[in-house]
Amino acid sequence: xxxxxxxxxxxxxxxxxxxxxxxxxxxxxxxxxxxxxxxxxxxxxxxxxxxxxxxxxxxxxxxxxxxxxxxxxxxxxxxxxxxxxxxxxxxxxxxxxxxxxxxxxxxxxxxxxxxxxxxxxxxxxxxxxxxxxxxxxxxxxxxxxxxxxxxxxxxxxxxxxxxxxxxxxxxxxxxxxxxxxxxxxxxxxxxxxxxxxxxxxxxxxxxxxxxxxxxxxxxxxxxxxxxxxxxxxxxxxxxxxxxxxxxxxxxxxxxxxxxxxxxxxxxxxxxxxxxxxxxxxxxxxxxxxxxxxxxxxxxxxxxxxxxxxxxxxxxxxxxxxxxxxxxxxxxxxxxxxxxxxxxxxxxxxxxxxxxxxxxxxxxxxxxxxxxxxxxxxxxxxxxxxxxxxxxxxx
Length: 394
Description:
This protein is an alpha/beta fold. The chain has helices spanning 7-28, 38-50, 77-90, 121-127, 132-144, 147-156, 172-177, 179-189, 208-225, 242-249, 251-259, 264-275, 277-281, 296-393, and strands at residues 65-71, 95-99, 113-114, 163-167, 194-201, 229-234, 284-287.
């Protein structure tokens, strides 16, 4: 992974990690503090009192705009990602590419940060006896533990970039449902304007039931990530997406298409289309072709509009959620520190009592020894006097 932190940052990080490890060990094992002498305990208590819990020092960046590309397997997501890279280069837009698919055998584009350089997908899968999906999930979990370094690298280059293009695994449920996917998405969204590009296979969406399935997944992505979403109808060189736009804007046309099918799936789709009417009417949609490059200018205009929407609406919600999360974290840390302080004070009291008890025992032992010696000396003297008197009498 292309991570090059500065020396000062490294020293600070090592110091913070060291103090955090000590603090964690003491919180989990209060008896660990028994190994500290009084001076070390006082220094620890003083450092705890001087500790100030604050938010991350990183500041929010207006640029670059992060585009997270998500799509079903076979929707042309990777080809679309390649087209995005080519378009940014041809348009003199400064782009930064991040690949999060550990199972990709080969990529048609060059990635600045590649998860495959950090995590070995095959080794994780074989070493832990996991299947393909389990190996991808484990790789994402491992990568997300260091994702703050990825954000830091991009943040250092923010003034030199216009867009950050992020490719995700083809197994869409692994990224959208896992904790690592949420960590990665929130990591980007907390620092840069972030947009979700949901890639749809247009030829397959000519089936009304498949179209409704894509709408449902887009709805779930929108409410899961709480980020602006762009519906990208891919493969318009094979089938135009005009029918989809008409279905999204005219509820009666979509109902007529669904009425042509009498299956149970169609009945469920009709109910869902009625419930989601307001959602897909306001959904930002574009048609693109990853092969020919058609519609890319329209797509990037939609990205800019979504970035403005992010700044106006979504950022405030994220800030509120992050503030509430930080408040809970501060309260938890304060409780841990109070508990640690009490444990260390109890330990110090036990040490003082033990020391006082040892001194008392030594004093009593000295008194007993002195008494025993005095008693032994007087008895010998009396014996000697009796002996002397006896010899004198004889």
